[in-house]
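Forgive a beginner's question, but would it be possible to get any protein sequence you like and the tokens describing how it folds?
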Amino acid sequence: MKMTKYEKARIIGARALQLASGAPFLLKLKEKDLHEINFNPIEIAKMELREGILPITIKRPMP
């Protein structure tokens, strides 16, 4: 199943908060790449989501 835009926003927000709090990156990023995105945790979280390496799952209640 595809993720809704609300699920994507929730996952990116939660991961960005973790990164801002000092969590390690799950991607191998070069110093140059980090400078290009200005060390923005939201952009890093988006990259991790695109790569599909986030260990976050979605539970949808089914009727």
The domain at 5-51 is CATH 3.90.940 (Eukaryotic RPB6 RNA polymerase subunit). DSSP finds three helices and no strands in the chain. The chain has one domain: 5-51. The first helix runs from residue 5 to 20.
